[in-house]
User: Fold these one by one.
Assistant:
Number 1:
Amino acid sequence: MNKPVIGITMGDPAGVGPELCLRVLKEKQVLQKCRPVIFGDAAVLERVARLCRLSRPRFVVPIEKWTKMKRASDFPLVVDCQSIEAEHVLPGKINPACGSASYRYIEAAVSSAKCGKIAAIATAPINKESLNLAGIKYPGHTEILAKLTHARRVCMMMASNEIKVSLVTIHTGLARVPEQLSVKGIVDVIELTDGVIRRLGKTKPRIAVCALNPHGGENGLFGTEEKKIIKPAIERARKKGIAVTGPVVPDTAFLPQKRREFDAYVVMYHDQGLIPFKMLAFDNGVNITLGLPIVRTSVDHGTAFDIAWQGKASASSMVQSILWAAKLAK
């Protein structure tokens, strides 16, 4: 009864999300730490269970019944959102109907979190092309969740026991990164990062902020973003009492001895942080959205269309995302 209720969205029905959801419903680590509630389509889960020779979900309630329930059950549950016909799903294929369904699962989970019926959300991967074909014009989960929760500022953190990395810019082309950097934006990410590390038990988090340009800009020779934007942001964060260092040179920032000095990194663009992160934590890393009024975690991989519905998907990142959600929910 004291275990937090964690909502798990099924992700794109044509991807590995349905298989991951079926696997975590039987995962001992998950069941020991929380009460999982899957938001998806029961018919799709049934079909994937047959194809992958996995156990079918035992307890299913229609979304209409779920919305009227005052509290979640004490056992693993599937909330049937009835968003897509199972026979209309082709595994591994782009499909606007799948994009629409995956958005519906997110909406249902967010609504349940906002009213307190679930303590956190862990999301399976969605497909951005399917979303866009369905008319849902968001780059990814982070932007969708910010809109649905009216969050004023958000950022993406990739987290594992080995390394934690927060991104100032997320899904944007490399050429557009400099124009999207601002003092306020960097300060926001530093503050959000400091907050989540404190929530995880560190009383004085140590945060490293990476430079944008080679050699930290080399005093303006390779770029002026460090002098004009990143350093002023660091100074402003220090005045707020945050233990922040930088701009640190990215090509040595993630060496083992450096990682021992810091509790988290703030990076300027996607691959600057994701390359070292996935080198160190590909199988056990999770994505945490900071700044939301609800707790949200996710796997650190995509829909894996090439192995969808084949019984080959590893649930290790999904398991970790649920365990992190349960940890943050407390």
Number 2:
Amino acid sequence: MIDLPLIWAFLIATAILIYVLLDGFDLGIGILFPFLRRDQDRDVAMNTVAPVWDGNETWLILGGGGLFATFPLAYSILMPALYAPVIAMLIALIFRGVAFEFRWRSENHRGHWDFAFTAGSMVAAFCQGIALGAFVQGIHVEGRAYAGGWWDWLTPFSLLTGVALVVGYALLGSTWLVMKTEGTLRKQAVRYATITGVGTVLFIGLISGATLSLDPRFMEIWFSYPAVLYTAPVPIAVMAAALWLWRSLKKGADYKPFLAAVTLFVLSFIGLGISLFPHIVPLKVTIWEAAAPDKSLGFLLVGTVVLLPIILGYTAYAYWIFRGKVKQGEGYH
């Protein structure tokens, strides 16, 4: 018999991961914006993501909408717990999107729109990190409903994950610029990628240790025998990816730093999955307990099987068409 809740949990997790990777690097461009010295460099940086940035957010809709449709119990618990950071994130994304378009047309107020672009990117990334931290640290559930307070999401752990995701997105953005630009802008990007790469690896270690201290069950999941035989390769692979990032930056590679940064995020996501599976509300509600009826899941899966290849196809086509370096004076706008 087909395990539809498990299939949908995998699809939603994949959509969230793709969103983090794709929207992560263009949010990272916004985070790095104040550190780019010249207006020309900012124009080039923005032009590297102009053709694809709005399509990247498709995956956020798929992840959020999919959660509502396929795991309504989890949605009804998680959203009240995370309303504040989620709403702040959405408002920040709106400001960022408006600023993206207006800065090209309103030259007299370009500085204001640059600030809105940077602030929107930073706030969106920070709120996503806070939501992740609040999710991982656990949500107070009684019966089948959220029983916590309005400010439960605001903790030292969630603030730590918020800062960590800002640094991680800056790493994705800087390695994207390494891949897509040349000259002085690329040199700046290499320097920022080195700094944010070190910061990202340190935060991965720090948050991993902090997560293990949240609940004794996390320690058991990672270090009990024989589970440790399957979990040990993940931190080893993280160290290997960090070394790959460092060496590729030192050797002046174009694509490898970005692929190494993506690998760090994928491995971190795998580690998160190991810690939480099979729970969709951490250590409280499993994916099977939260799932919609099988008939609903099957109906939605049919539509997804049709639409998902289309989304993947046009996304891949857009990246292929706009591949290569972006030079000063050239771009989507």
Number 3:
Amino acid sequence: MYFAFSNGINRAEKKNLAGGFLVWSIFCSIGNVFIFSHYGIHAPVYKFVLIMGWIPYFVVFMAAVRRNFVQHVFVFGMSEIWSLIWHNFSAIIVIRLFESEQEIIFGHAIVYLMLFTVSLPLARRFFVNLLPPKKFFKDYGKFVAFLPFAMIIPVLLLWLQEPLIHSWQERVSRFYLPIVFFFFYRHILLTSEQLQEQKRTEQNFKRMQEQLTVLKEYNRLMQEGREKVAVIRHDLRHSYRLISVMLQKNEFDAARDYVASQETLLGRTKVKDFCQTPLINAAL
């Protein structure tokens, strides 16, 4: 679970997590010593400790690393599947080495911890890239997040049965669900990425259409301005002649009024540029 959230865990959360685990591990060790010394080392007691032992650690982890509850459930379910795989491997190995119940229990605990430790580099590589974006659980994967935990429940119910050693068919079948789910989850993740990419493409296309519409409007305004300027240029010769006649007749006020009216007309044809970017000019 730490690997899955490691990219976003800050120093304070690491400190709280380490402190919480340290404190509880002391109480857990004392409690386990009491349970096994009082009830003896037997299969039901060992299974009870394994079944219930994760709950306080999960609570400590959620309290120290505050994230979305759905994310915690998903990562926990996947970590349980990962642990179940090595639990099953250790059971297969121990059964071939030991015969008595206590030897099998001690051997299983030791071999499981060894396999778990040796597989940490592989676990890091898998779990660091396991957690999808938050949007995945919000839009698509809200129910997918509970699937790993739901898959573990029937396996645990069968595992809680009284026999310490189950049949080979049952032990081998425990590998089937995790493998199938890993492929299933990978397919869902790839599908969600494709849907996200499709959404981004559609949004970009819509944005480009809006920009094209704005540019068309801006181009229309520019074209209208050019047309008005062309008309004014066509009339410039006539205007100059008219002004010349007014000056010759000493009609200076009329000439000034005419020039002012022409300046106003020219101002109407101008498209103001705020910057060199057409989109910003059109928007302003």
